[in-house]
Amino acid sequence: xxxxxxxxxxxxxxxxxxxxxxxxxxxxxxxxxxxxxxxxxxxxxxxxxxxxxxxxxxxxxxxxxxxxxxxxxxxxxxxxxxxxxxxxxxxxxxxxxxxxxxxxxxxxxxxxxxxxxxxxxxxxxxxxxxxxxxxxxxxxxxxxxxxxxxxxxxxxxxxxxxxxxxxxxxxxxxxxxxxxxxxxxxxxxxxxxxxxxxxxxxxxxxxxxxxxxxxxxxxxxxxxxxxxxxxxxxxxxxxxxxxxxxxxxxxxxxxxxxxxxxxxxxxxxxxxxxxxxxxxxxxxxxxxxxxxxxxxxxxxxxxxxxxxxxxxxxxxxxxxxxxxxxxxxxxxxxxxxxxxxxxxxxxxxxxxxxxxxxxxxxxxxxxxxxxxxxxxxxxxxxxxxxxxxxxxxxxxxxxxxxxxxxxxxxxxxxxxxxxxxxxxxxxxxxxxxxxxxxxxxxxxxxxx
Length: 448
What we know:
This is Biotin carboxylase. The chain is an alpha+beta fold.
């Protein structure tokens, strides 16, 4: 087992990893930018190293500085968390070259799944259902038009290196496709330095359902049930739950087998997620694979009583998994508490938290790195906490979430708590009648 792990991340996920490491008897090293000097992950790690100014490019994305921090503290492994360098093949490779274990996917696995066009080709070969579309990257607008006419509108253009909804455009006719072609490529080039675009049939009113998987170094892969991530705004998830209210035993079995086949096709090692779009007929299609831990991993942990960070570390250290797949025993839900103003287009609201009260009670979990007096920097993602509730049924889980949200007090900045409270009262949400377009098409923001 590792003696010391450097966490190449910040905020709540860094603190989350530190907690599990402590329980496993593993020393930890926190890294931080000057903007994060007062963050709790810095306080609770065994050691802390400043890695640069607030800019992510000069701190959390600075590979040479991170490697140097690991070397001077004698860390024998690096956990990248999510975001930042967690799916960076170059970082994984450099860790290998410096005899530091990267607690995540290998460079080859990241490359195969990081490029969405090649990921789709790999999944098709493994027999995983994929959305009809281009076989690879598009060479020209003419190619896009030709395929769109063949598979019929609506279609969606996607950046091969995309993420967070950037580099994506939906088109319902040739004119929209031409405009989307130019806009998507420009946005993708600016955001990712790669303007590669592919095209797919646009699945109308889909559910976004993902399967949590885990694979070890010995070729064993299992799944740990599903999460429903359909409540999202501009492709950014706001609420996740497990199990999905749309799920059936038959569909879970089929999606689980498909996810295992996809992971096995690349000899996947570690914890990861295979994401699917599921249409109204419960036909499912591969969307992408995340070769890392995800923000929403706590809901899976709560329904099966399973520490996914611990499993990640054990697998990276060469411990085999049991090989058994897991099925939900409870119902869990996660609300992302962001420092944003939902009454004003979810505008970011950085600043100093003057008052903070964290909810508690049976079946309530809060993952956060903030405290009263903490100043939320404007340099990073606006998520400041994750509120998770778990209960025997979905109905009880929603009631518990509403109660916990009403106890969650954050003053000094705007947060998404009012939005989540309104959502818990929404009749369609409570009935499980929603899809990825629910907030744009059906939710009444005037109720906030």
